[in-house]
Amino acid sequence: MGRLTWSQLRFRAPRTIALLAGMLVAATAFTVLTAAARTAQLRTVGTVSAHFRPAYDILVRPKRSRTELESRTGTVQPNFLSGIYGGITMAQYRRVQHIPGVQVAAPIAMVGYALERLAIPVPLPASDYRRPGRQLYRYTTTWVSAGGTTRITQPASYLYLTPDRLGRSNAGAADEILPDRSRVGVCPGPAATANPFSPAAQSNGWCWSKINGTAGLFVAGGPDHRAFATVDWAFPMLIAAIDPVAEARLDGLNRAITSGLYLAENAGDGRTPYGQPTFPVLSATESGIGEYAVTQVQRLPAPRGPVTLTPARMTREAAVAGQTVLTTRMFAQQAYRQVLGLTAKPGRDEIVGKYWTAGPTRYLRDSDGTLTAVQARNPRSVWQPGQVTIALLAPPMDETQSQYRVLQGHGYGGGQDITGAPLAQMVGEFDQAKIRPFDPLSRVPLGEYQPATVAPADAASRRALHGGDLLPSLNLGGYVSQPVNLITTLAALPALENGSSFSGNLHASDPISVIRVRVAGVTGPNPVSLERIREVARQIAVGTGLNVDIVAGSSPQPTTVSLPAGKFGQPPLELTEGWVKKGVAVAILTAVDKKSVVLFTLILVVCVLFVANSATAAVRGRRRELGVLACLGWTRSRLFGTVLGELAVIGLAAGVLGAAAALPLAGAVGLHASPLRALLAIPIAVAVALIAGAVPAWLAARAEPVASVRPPALAVRRGHNPGGITALALVNVTRTPGRTVVGALSLAVGVAALTLLTAVTVTFRGIVVGSLLGNAVAVQVRGVDYVAVSATVALGVLAVADVLFLNIRERATELATIRSFGWRESALARLVVTEGTVIGIAGSLVGAALGLAATAEFAGRLPGRMLADAACVAAIGVLITAGAALLPARLLRRLPVAYLLAEE
Questions:
Q1: What is the largest CA-CA distance in the chain?
Q2: How many domains does one find in the chain?
Q3: Between vectors from CA 772 to CA 770 and to CA 777, what angle results, nearest 5°?
């Protein structure tokens, strides 16, 4: 039997070489493709491990602070501090500090927004100031935000300039002193109004004398003593309290100081010599507000006599045409630096007589995962109706824009007398950009330094925002909250959250909003580190009863947020916001393990099918020879062993050659293939050969001897009358269903692998991971995996081509007969190509369906876009198969028509 096996291998060299080539490709492909999968896995694990650690590992928040949306999506909002003002006691904070394994516990206590007001002068042109007689000017300021889409025009203010002297009355009003010593009231004193956004509250009426300016209210407007209009800024200054030592250990805030000193650990509320409470404050160098003010000054017709700037007079003058003499633009950062320049002066402290807190943003979630922000309504009473007087004390006009957070005011209990309100004493400045940089792929919001990044998500939004992000404005209830501008210490909270001093729902007993915890001994996404984090989180939850989120191994998840149109020109916007996706690292590693197992399985399946198809072709080609041996008395077991032995020898040779070729080939394409993995190809190639050849060898051994030596003939069945080449191709494909199924299934495996890989890429971007870290991993994996799966598809296409080769060889006489009927060679070639296309369509459709099913299993759900992706992959499979069918079609030129017809 051994000699027969050797003789068959030797004297049937063409078929042996073809079978050896097929198994060699299979063995080499297995080694190289598994090396590709292993290399991708190692790279993915390395990337995940390198980006595993965020700024902190655990986020602790008050009870019931985790929203239903966060729980349902496994995320943490980027502005998770929005709406959380207290809820954690100092005792709970100390308990967290002393839990074993806690390396750093850094608390944040959100206090609220104080409005820092500043009137910035806009001097009149010198030529106007030198004009004789009385002059009247109207100036309006338009507040521009949201990338220029929101434009809110403040009610007009007025400047009256007179050559006469001005005098002041006890009520704060200004009188013009005429040459005859009589007095005419020109600027009435401020009057209270119930509407903080009405012209009476938002308009200024300035009276200016070329002799004595404003009669002592302001100093002269510059070196040339020019009169000026004002741009009245009201900055929302968000105040937060920290533990300075813990914060420095967490993110290095102490190293971001640009001037002054860092906060002392126990620096709390002090007292001025007059007994007024004080608290130390670090101020941010950047306002974080993306807004600017455009101020236009117009000269109105010169009045003939003194002008009394009553609200009624200013309302009438609003419709009068004027001549523009000046237009200026000032950005929020410029105004903010002027605010800091004033507050940083020695002896100048800022009184916090009222501050506001803002609630969380509510969302509606669409079926596609898009979040729609729900607008909120804030009553005018939140701005203290009846106490608003002039624009210098009024809230920003931005508060009339659409709002998304409910506001609550906390006024000083002393009423108008705020001499007992706490004073903020500036001790230093810090630069947000100098805060310790953390890995962008695993970044979690620190909570107080930078606003959440909200970028445009579609072309229309990019155009509206001019390619920039949506930044905070002066609107306290706007969608993007302002960053913290003033940082104080926990010890200073009694001065700000004293219920006997400030109204509203204060948290004097539980002032802390969140605690950020870093766990000791965490080195990466390994089981020991993950267990340490889980154990600390468990102890915090049990010991305090607070909400605990593990954010180690998380990553920003791009989330689409839809904003409805605003009131002042802002169109509907589609935005992308980086929500924190929890458990990303573990999800990626689990997904990669699944993908590797799937690829290994598909590679083995396609190798088995390819070898089985080649072995079947070899056995069918030796049908008569095996029948003769059976007639000579060879037993079925001996025939089975002969056929299987030949395949085993070929498999052994293919394994050896494949192992030798795999290492340099893998190295050439940058894959990690060890010698042990290459040697593993030898037993795998033999095993694949035996498994794939078992069925063909069994069929050869079971065949009837007499039937095997007779010419093959099909049983009489119902006749067909095909109407064209396509119909004839369909009939030919169904005549050998087993062979057709093998070819189609071989192609289906490759198409399924390609469909699945496309799904993996999409899944890493939005389903299994849906985060920046997942996207980075997908970019790394994609090139290697597509090379691997492309080779798998190529094996499937070659299997279909082998089926066509075998069909042509077995139907050679039939094709010669058709050729003798006058069919052109091109028509026969079209017939073969059509048969290949039919098999390609069947295999591609089945493969695409299998790939979609695998996607659903892999990702947990099937994204709608995968249907289009699967259709594209199936079309590619059909086109490649049709192209591969051209090679066997070329055999038709070499058919010995005369010889075949004579033999028949």
A1: 147
A2: 3
A3: 85
Question: Is 777 in contact with 764 (CB distance < 8 Å)?
Answer: yes
pTM: 0.73
Q: Average pLDDT of the chain?
A: 79
Judgement on whether residues 622 and 524 belong to the same structural domain of the protein:
no
Range of the domain at 39: 1-52+583-711
- 309 shares its domain with 435: yes
Structure tokens at 670: 């940058």
Q: Report yes or no on 70 lying in a domain.
A: no
Q: How many helices (H) and strands (E) does the chain have?
A: 26, 28
The Cα–Cα gap between 97 and 19 comes to 70
Q: Which of 687, 711, 735 is the last residue of a domain?
A: 711
Provide CB contacts within 8 A for 882, sequence distance 6+.
833, 836, 837, 840
**CA–CA separation, 515 vs 518, rounded Å?**
10
Q: How confident is the model at residue 3 (pLDDT cuts 50, 70, 90)?
A: low
Classify the phi-psi angles of 321: left when phi > 0, otherwise alpha if psi is within -120 to 50, otherwise beta.
beta
| Judgement on whether residues 647 and 777 belong to the same structural domain of the protein | no
d(CA 782, CA 39): 12
Asked if pLDDT for residue 234 goes beyond 50, the answer is yes
Rounded CA-CA distance 590/553 in Å is 13
Kind of pairing between the strands at 423-430 and 277-284: parallel
Gap between the Cα atoms of 251 and 55, Å rounded: 7
- 707 plus 763 within the same structural domain: no
Same-domain pairing of 732 and 705: no
* Residue 794 forms part of a structural domain: yes
DSSP labels, 442-464: G----SSSSPPPEEE-SHHHHHH
Tokens of 287: 């306002």
Same domain, 43 and 100: no
CB 495 within 8 A of CB 270: no
